[in-house]
């Protein structure tokens, strides 16, 4: 098992080295796009490119990752810590020695502790430094599940733990009363959903506890006119859901019916207006399912005119594509282009072509003799 783990680390380190080199040539955004096209999840592709970019100024750490002495995840922790608080060669060597035998969770705490020591003279308290490092990531995991990863400072984290504990305890009372089969982890997950998507009932309201908070969830389904029933229900990213779940959502929601690509639906606006309509945005969500460049979720994207509006490009569904703000800037400011895949009809974001290198000028015999 140890030998297999060493081989895994070396393979991951070799990939990190390749991504780092490709990032030097084409940029970290292009490296993440290539990783995603190779079958790596969008989140891990961005993480891999970020790790490779962060390790470029740390050649000793990059070498340790490439040779399997340090895992790619541990190398990413060191790179992020160096960006926040630069470390000396001695600091790097200390972390390399510890990372060789410490587990990932223990090494993460070690990196944070050493960073606090390096930043002890920056005039910030430990709580302020922790708060500066707060983050929350939401991404698609395996099996169609959604994964949340949050890092909070001590005070905010304690408030969240207390709120989750109180809601979970209330749900435990409901479990005892109604006897459903729900594990501790499932109850915590339900408590988090309740805290995020619901809010306290108004004072004096007959409803006790919490009431639903308004949220928008786009669900689509095909209608079979022959059989007279709905089929192929799913979320905007293509994730299928059962019809029973669709009926449950319909009972709790305000229904806004939309028929895509049917007569009367304004999916083709021509030159009548520049901004896409709500119907067009929803149709793009369903068709593209994310940014054409990095694959980020559609809700974070803008509708981009493939043929620019200023060059008489129409606001039609076949002239629009979803791009996140970062990839959108790559087109307008850095010369990236979109290319349509003839087989799938999907667009890919391509970096600008590299300028051709000119051959050195040929010198005449007299010029060569003068130069000598």
How would you sum up this structure in a few lines?
The chain has 372 residues and is an alpha+beta fold. It contains 14 helices and ten strands. The strands form five sheets. The chain has a two-stranded antiparallel sheet.
Short descriptors:
flat, two-stranded antiparallel ribbon, alpha+beta, two-stranded antiparallel sheet, 372 residues
Report on the structure:
There is one protein chain. The chain has helices at 2-26, 28-37, 42-55, 59-66, 72-84, 89-99, 104-118, 126-132, 154-178, 184-197, 243-252, 278-288, 325-334, 365-371, and strands spanning 135-140, 146-151, 198-200, 210-212, 219-224, 229-235, 302-305, 320-323, 337-340, 347-350. It contains 14 helices and ten strands. 48% of the residues lie in helices and 13% in strands. The relative contact order is 0.06. The chain has a two-stranded antiparallel ribbon. Strands 3-4 form a two-stranded antiparallel ribbon. A two-stranded antiparallel ribbon has the order 5-6. The chain has 372 residues and is of the alpha+beta class. Helix 1 (2-26) packs across helix 2 (28-37), helix 2 (28-37) runs antiparallel to helix 3 (42-55) and helix 6 (89-99) runs antiparallel to helix 7 (104-118). The model is unreliable at 201-208 and 261-266 (pLDDT under 50).
Please tell me the overall pLDDT: 76
Count every helix, treating DSSP H or I runs of 4 or more residues as helices.
Answer: 14
Measure the end-to-end span. 63 Å
User: Rg to the nearest angstrom?
Assistant: 27 Å
Uncertain ranges: 201-208, 261-266
Read across the widest sheet, the strand sequence of neighbours is 1-2
Main sheet? 2 strands, antiparallel
Q: How much beta, percentage-wise? A: 5-15%
Helix content: 40-55%
Q: What structural class results from the helix and strand content? A: alpha+beta
Helix and strand run: HHHHHHHHEEHHEEEEHHEEHEEH
Say how many strands there are.
Answer: 10
Looking at the structure, what is the overall shape?
Answer: flat
């Amino acid at each position: 098992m140890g030998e297999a783990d060493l081989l895994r680390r070396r393979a991951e380190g070799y990939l990190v080295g390749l991504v780092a080199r490709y990032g030097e040539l084409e940029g970290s955004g292009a490296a993440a796009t290539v990783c995603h096209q190779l079958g790596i999840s969008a989140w891990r592709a961005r993480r891999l490119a970020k790790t490779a970019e962060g390790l470029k100024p740390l050649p000793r750490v990059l070498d340790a990752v490439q040779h399997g002495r340090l895992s790619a995840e541990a190398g990413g922790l060191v790179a992020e810590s160096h960006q926040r608080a630069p470390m000396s060669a001695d600091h790097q060597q200390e972390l390399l020695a510890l990372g060789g035998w410490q587990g990932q969770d223990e090494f993460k705490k070690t990196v944070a502790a050493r960073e606090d020591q390096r930043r002890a003279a920056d005039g910030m308290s430990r709580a302020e430094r922790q708060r500066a490092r707060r983050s929350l990531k939401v991404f698609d995991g395996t099996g169609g599940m959604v994964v949340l990863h949050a890092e909070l400072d001590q005070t905010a984290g304690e408030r969240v733990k207390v709120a989750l504990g109180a809601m979970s305890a209330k749900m435990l009372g409901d479990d005892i009363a109604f006897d459903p089969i729900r594990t501790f982890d499932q109850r915590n997950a339900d408590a988090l959903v309740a805290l995020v998507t619901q809010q306290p009932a108004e004072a004096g309201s007959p409803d006790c506890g919490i009431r639903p908070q308004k949220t928008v969830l786009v669900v689509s389904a095909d209608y079979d006119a022959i059989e007279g029933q709905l089929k192929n229900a799913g979320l905007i990213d293509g994730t299928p859901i059962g019809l029973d779940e669709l009926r449950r959502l319909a009972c709790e929601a305000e229904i806004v019916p939309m028929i895509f690509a049917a007569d009367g639906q304004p999916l083709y606006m021509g030159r009548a207006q520049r901004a896409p309509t709500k119907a067009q945005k929803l149709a793009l969500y369903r068709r593209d399912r994310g940014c054409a460049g990095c694959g980020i979720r559609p809700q974070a994207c803008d509708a981009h005119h493939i043929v620019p509006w200023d060059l008489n490009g129409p606001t039609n569904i076949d002239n629009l594509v979803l791009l996140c703000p970062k990839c959108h800037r790559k087109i307008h400011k850095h010369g990236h282009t979109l290319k349509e895949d003839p087989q799938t009809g999907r667009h890919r974001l391509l970096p600008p072509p590299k300028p051709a290198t000119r051959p050195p000028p040929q010198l005449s015999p007299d010029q060569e003799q003068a130069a000598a």
